[in-house]
Amino acid sequence: MSRPTVHDVARVANVSLSTVDRVLNGRTGVRAATEERVRTAMKQLGYERDIMAANLSRKRNYAIHFVIPDGPNSFMRNLAAELETHAQVALRDRTEISVSLVPPFDGRGLAAALRRAREAKVDGVVMVATESAEVRQAVLELRAAGIQVVTLVSDLSASARGHFVGIDNVAAGRTAAGLLGRFCQARPGRIAIVAGSMLVRDHVERRLGFEQVMHADFPTLEVLAPVEGGDEAARVDRLLTDVLQAYPDVVGVYSLGGGNRGLRKALDRIDAADRPRVVVHELTEQSRTALQDGVFDAVLQQDIHKEVTSALVIMRNLIEAVPTDPRTGLIHTEIFLRDNLP
Amino acid sequence: MSRPTVHDVARVANVSLSTVDRVLNGRTGVRAATEERVRTAMKQLGYERDIMAANLSRKRNYAIHFVIPDGPNSFMRNLAAELETHAQVALRDRTEISVSLVPPFDGRGLAAALRRAREAKVDGVVMVATESAEVRQAVLELRAAGIQVVTLVSDLSASARGHFVGIDNVAAGRTAAGLLGRFCQARPGRIAIVAGSMLVRDHVERRLGFEQVMHADFPTLEVLAPVEGGDEAARVDRLLTDVLQAYPDVVGVYSLGGGNRGLRKALDRIDAADRPRVVVHELTEQSRTALQDGVFDAVLQQDIHKEVTSALVIMRNLIEAVPTDPRTGLIHTEIFLRDNLP
DNA sequence: CTGTGTTTGACTAACGTACGTCAAAAAAAT
DNA sequence: ATTTTTTTGACGTACGTTAGTCAAACACAG
Questions:
Q1: Which among A32, A96, A327, B323 is most buried, taking Cβ atoms within 10 Å?
Q2: Residues of A 46-65 whose CB lies less than 7 Å from any atom of strand C
Q3: Is B115 exposed, middle or buried (0-12, 13-18, 19+ CB in 10 A)?
Q4: For B14-27, how does the pLDDT look when each residue is reduced to its tens digit (9 = 90+)?
């Protein structure tokens, strides 16, 4: 009825408990033929080691280190706060969470933090990736040291990471285009894009998806080259104001990074009737009120809480070499209109 | 450094292990004063019982029973399939999942199933609720028997359920209105609603939210009284065709239940140029291709996998009397356009 | 056949908790 | 002061696993 134990395996394989243990934990001193007998018995019985009992016995606890960007970006600030909360409850599951903050958009700093994590001998590292050769190298070294790596929010290309947890940013860009295109059907014109930095993969991917759909499905709307605001409100304000003055026929704006306070400032200088339709990322105090006031039309969001939860589940599975349902890492891009604000 | 154990509590409270155990498990024969000493020590140390070790010791396993509607509804079929998968992996967590199917929209049948679950002495019941006095009574009896109850997808009003897992259906209706309203801005006209049955709470709530936003934000669009298709394709086809003939100026359709094959059939009889904008629920083979063909404009969806996962987590927490993060039960309504299909 | 090295089994303690038994200690009743 | 009752402690066993020691059994070379 209930799950088979090592005792059952031993009995079926006709060996002692010790031998089963030797096979199970890869200890030496077992003849190939015997090992085979044990393995067959395990398969036959459908034996799966009881991870909880095993952890109890070896006094194991999982040390997981998060590396996330510092700075004023409110999304990352929320992430940090979220981790605080998780650190408390994760202890119940024998999981110790530590966090280090690194300068944003800085590959070198990130790589250094990864190296420190390796020396601290943690079991796994969860990182918000910045694209750079040093980072990729550091990740390889982590893996070589047997440390699992999961990327969060922003992925690494062709990296050795075990998993990515976050939204599909290309799909997010496509969604933004699908919405903005439909919203702007009434009056053709130009579309402006405000990005943060093209050094982070999520921004690059969002732009890619956005332009794909815009070109294919809404050819009457001309997409302007993106301006890079570095997620800073003042710079976004200035850059967007310039664009809006240069092109008075801008009917839509897609902001795929931070600095939405600046975005709103720039928009507020226009008459309500002439304002473009606006789709932005990340639900914050600013973007929420902007939605309510009708200045923004839609906000795309990723649920940090779910992302952190997923990252932890995946980490544990990676460390235990247990397969993970691929859907666990897939976080859907949430869409907020004025009408479904939580 | 590491978590305090019962031994630590015993030492600090200056009592024996047995006494701590008596307090911890509510056994008799402990003086009030002593119990107080123990409780103080636990608080002081921040002691939390190690649930995994406790379960190991008492050979506990969680028996959780799901009661879901039978029938052709593809959403419920997916739910059943999802449970199959979960049943496998849940065993790793000492969780045994059983499922019983009941006729849809049938309070009496549901109540009977709940009674059977009570007699089977399971630890928790997860149900897709149908609104009825008998069901509410059966839920109360479950609770009285110490069995936890969680509603899934469709909630019960004023029930004794421990939690609801699913999307906010009022918000979903509001979202549908927000989208459909914006999509239909170009040409004012009428909006048709196709429902399944007004006996299930989710449909009622979706309609409510939809009409709220339509009336408030899009007064130029007139919302027709909903037709009830009972989630059956043929009936939906017939009813919608009638509506479209009676009101040639229908510019938008919101289908908040099942039977989307019938919906599509009815729409296909109209010239592409004259077709209304369409927002429906549940991503299926039908709705997916309809999106790709441009017949549907948006599909609202709830992620069954996440819902089942959440329900199980919440169940375990309820049974263990551990607090649950309220965000665990909140499933966001996913919005699919042609552009972000997975 | 002996000696050497390898493989295997039997046994023990531990992880943190649950739960039972029995006797000792303390408190309450006589 | 003695008996009765209640409270407490000491101890053992168990859950399924890890991890160790030690001796017995075995294989194989010389």
A1: A96
A2: 53, 56-57, 59
A3: middle
A4: 999 999 999 999 99
